[in-house]
Amino acid sequence: MEISSKENTHFFSNNTILPVDRSSFKSESSASKEKQSCCGGIKIFLCALSFVYFAKALSGSYLKSTITQIERRFDIPSSLVGVIDGSFEIGNLLIIILVSYFGAKLHRPRIIGAGCLIMSAGTLLIAMPQFFMGRYQYERFPSTINSTVSISPCLQDKSQTPLSALEKSQAEINAGCEKEAGSSMWIYVLLGNLLRGIGETPIQPLGITYVDDYAVEENAALYIGCVQTVAIIGPIFGFLLGSLCAKLYVDIGFVDLDSVTISPKDVQWVGAWWLGYLIAGVISVLAGIPFWFLPKHLPKPESRKDSSTSSEQSKFIIEESKDQRTSYQQQAKLAEMAKDFLPSLKNLFGNPVYILYLCASIIQFNSLIGMVTYKPKYIEQQYGQTSSKTNFVIGLINIPAVAFGIFSGGLIMKKFRIGVLGAAKLSLGSSFFGYLLLLSLFAMGCENSDVAGLTASYHGTKPMTDYERALFSECNSGCSCSENDWDPVCGENGVTYVSACLAGCQASNGSGKNTVYFNCSCVGTFESSQSSSAVVGPCQKGNECPKMFLYFLVISVITSYTLSVGGTPGYILLLRCIKPHLKSFALGIYTLAIRVLAGIPAPVYFGVAIDTTCLKWGSKRCGGRGACRLYDSSALRYVYLGLTLVLGTVSIFFSVAVLWVLRKRSSPQDETLSANGERGTCGTKSRKDNFVNSDQLIQSTYWPEKETRL
C-alpha cells in the first residue's frame, strides 16, 4: 500500500516531499466510520441535487410548451416571444462567471439553496399577469354568443348592430385602450424568466463538481448517471403538464365554460398556461430546502486524497510547476482568487481544442435552441395539431429518445473504451447523421389549407399577390366586413373563410360552437359548390396531413436520438482537455458562451424569420398588430428547417477542425491501448476504469438546456 501511494504521488502529484499515508495510522473502526459518513453525506446531497435537477428541468420544459399560449394570450409576435424565452439566458449571463469561479470556493450547497428560492420566485412571477389582467377576449361574431338576437353576418354594420353594443362613449373606449396599452403584462413574464435564469445558475457548475470532489471515484459514474436519469424525468413531466394545462381554458374558474365558443383546435384558443407555473414554483421551493442543512465540505474518500488527474488528461494538459500546484491546494483568500482570474481565463482561451469545441457548440446550440423553441408552433401550424397533443407527443416520445441517446453515448464510450480522439469522431458522426436526417423532413410537410383570399381565391384559382385586398370579392361586395377580423368558418366546400361576413353568409342558427351559417354567397360560388352553409371554426387539413405527421414523428425521434448520442462524447472531449483546477471555471465559461451567443439570440432571430411567413395577422382591440393567425405552411417549413440545417452544417466544420487538431497533437502509439489496460495514452499505468473515471463523466450526460433538445 505504501509503494502504491508513492507511485501515485510520483505520477500524479510530482511533489518532492511524499505525503504521509495517514490511513496506516488510523484504526480500522475509525476508517470505517469515515467511509460511512462520507457515503451517507454524498448520497443525501445526490438525492437533493436530483430533485433540483427535476425541478429546473420541469419549469424549463414547461416554458417551452407554453410559447404559443403566451403569444396568443398577450397578443404578441413570435419575435417578442423569442425575447421572453431568451431572458432566461440573460439571467444566467448576469452572474454565471461569479458563481462558477467564486462559488466553488464558498458554501456550495447553500448557494444552490438560494438559487432555488430565486428560481421559484421567478416561476411564480410568470403566472402573476393572469390574476391582474382582464379576462381573455377572442374575436367572435355576436350571433355565436347570444342566440336570442338574430344578426345577419353579411349585413352587419353600425346601423344594424343592436344599439346596446354602440352605447359606449368614445371617451370610455379611449380610456380602456390607454389602460390596455399601458399594461404590457408580458413584461412580468420576461422578468420572471430572468429570475429563473439567475436562480438556475449555480445548480449545474457547483452541484456536479461537489459530487466529483467528495464521491468515491469508482462510484462517480453511477452517481452522475442517477442525477441525470432523474433530471430526464423533469422535461417529460414538464411537457405532459403543458399538455394537460393546454386542454383547460385560460380563464377556468373565472368564467362559465359553457359560454366559451372556441375549442382547443381553434387558433385563438389559449389554455391555462399560468397553472403549470404555480405548480413548478412550489416544486422549486421544496427542492431548495435540503441544501440549507448540508455541510460546506464532506470528508474525502481515502482513494481521492493522493490523486490529481487521469493519465489521459495529462496528455493534453501542460503540467504546472510545483509552486503553482501547491498554491491551488491551499485555502485561497478572496483577493487571491480575484488576482488569479485573468490568468485562468487566458489559460482557457489559449487551448485550441477548447476554443474550437466552444465555437462548434455555440453554432450547434443556435440551431437546436431555435428549433426546439418553435417546434410546438411548427407542429401546430404545419400539421394542424392542437397545443395539447403537440406537448404530449414531445414529452412522451421525443424526450425519452434524447435520454436514450445520452445513455447510449456513454455506454458506447465505456463498451469500446473510447479515448479523446474516439470521442471527437463519435461526436462529429452523431451531428453529421443527425442533420442528414433532418433533410428528409423537407418532404414531410402539409400543403396550405384552402383559405379564401389568402391561400386560394374565392373562385378556386391562385390568390392575388396582395393578400389583404384579396379578402374581398364580388360574392361579398355587398357586405360591410372588416379585413382585420379573424373569426374563421368552414364552408361545406371544405374551404375556410376568414369570417362569416367575408363568406357572404346572410343568416345564422344556433349559438356558440354549434352556430351554423346559411345562404353564404361565397361558399356557393366556389367551384360550383351545391351547398352554401358554413360552421364555426376552420376546416381541417388535407387527408394526407395525418400520414405526414406520423412520418415526421418517426424521423424526429430518430434524429433526436442520433444527435443526443454525441452529447456525452462531446463533453468528455471538453473535460479531458482542460486542467483539473479549472474544471468549474471552464464549464462556467462554456455555459456562459452558450447562453449569450446561442440561448439569447437564437429564439429572437428564429422568431423574426418565422414572422415573415405569416399570412394573416390578428388585430388588437384598440388597433395595432397582434399575434399571427395563419402561416404559409411551405414558407414556414423552408425557413424553420432551412435555418436549422444551415447552422448545423457550419457547426460540423468546426467539429472537423477539433478532430484535426487532436490528430495533430497525438501520436499513433497514444491512440492504442494494450490488452491489459496498463498502457495509457501517455504511457503511464492507468486503472481498469480509466475511460469512465469521474473526471471524464462530470457533466458527461448534461449540456445547457439539454432537457428540451428536440
UniProtKB/TrEMBL annotation:
Keyword Cell cycle carried by entry: no
Q: Where is the Major facilitator superfamily (MFS) profile domain?
A: 45-666
Locations listed in the record: Cell membrane
Which intervals of the chain are annotated as region Disordered?
Answer: 670-689
Q: Which reaction does it catalyse?
A: L-thyroxine(out) = L-thyroxine(in); 3,3',5'-triiodo-L-thyronine(out) = 3,3',5'-triiodo-L-thyronine(in); L-thyroxine sulfate(out) = L-thyroxine sulfate(in)
User: Which ranges carry the Kazal-like domain?
Assistant: 469-524
Q: Which GO terms describe its molecular function?
A: bile acid transmembrane transporter activity; sodium-independent organic anion transmembrane transporter activity
Please give the start and end residues of each transmembrane region: 40-59, 80-104, 110-132, 230-250, 270-294, 354-372, 392-412, 424-444, 548-575, 587-610, 639-662
Q: Which UniProt keywords apply?
A: Cell membrane, Disulfide bond, Glycoprotein, Ion transport, Lipid transport, Membrane, Transmembrane, Transmembrane helix, Transport
State the GO CC annotations. Answer: basolateral plasma membrane
Q: Does the keyword Transcription apply?
A: no
Q: Which family does it belong to?
A: Belongs to the organo anion transporter (TC 2.A.60) family.
What this protein is called in its record is Solute carrier organic anion transporter family member
Lineage, opening ranks: Eukaryota, Metazoa, Chordata, Craniata, Vertebrata
